[in-house]
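Quick check before the chapter quiz. The format below is the same one you will see on the exam, so make sure you can read both the input and the output lines.
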Amino acid sequence: MQQSTHVDLVRFSAVSSTESKEILAPILAVSRHRLALDGNGVVTLVAFMGCPLRCEYCLNDFCHNMDRVPRRVTVQQLIDEVMIDNLYFLATDGGITFGGGEPLLQSRFIESFCQSCDTRWNITLETSLNVPLEHLERVFPHVNNYIIDIKDMNREIYEKYTQLSQNNLLTNLGWLMSKPDISSKVTVRLPHIPSYNAQEDVDRSREILAEMGVVNFDEFNYIVRKK
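Here is the expected output.
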């Protein structure tokens, strides 16, 4: 087992195109050994800086401060870093989850990473889908599972909470759900947001999403700390 691990490390360290060397992604954090939190099996969460939304109860509000990026990495540097858990990924059907911030803002980096990493890794995307469609189209061939943070399907509630139009989200979600055999790969998060939506709003969002073909939901309450 140790010998094959060494071979894998050498093989993947050698895979590095000119493009992947040049792409630099702003990283908020790399969190290892996440189990049953962000995808199948043992997962390493790679959180990117940058997000188009301005949600009041943002969990990673620091991601908006692009003047204070903790670090920037190339595709190969990230592969070398996460390869330490390769055996865990393969043994548990786990892999890499890209989150943030909004990972689709780094679609070229994700595409290059997936073209260079072990193809046996599961790739999960935690996204708001609120980016131009071209970003989703670019990564689609490489992503195994999607965790989509919808907020609320009511346009007024969504735009009041996120301070952004719902148009990109609706376009991307419609495009994604039109793909064959996609339903089992998509989980939609439906939060109860204090002062923004009520149970009937969450129920209505669920009805609309079910009509679009969504079958997996994660319904939960935001825990709001007093400022």
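If your answer matched, good. The domain at 2-221 is CATH 3.20.20.70 (TIM Barrel).
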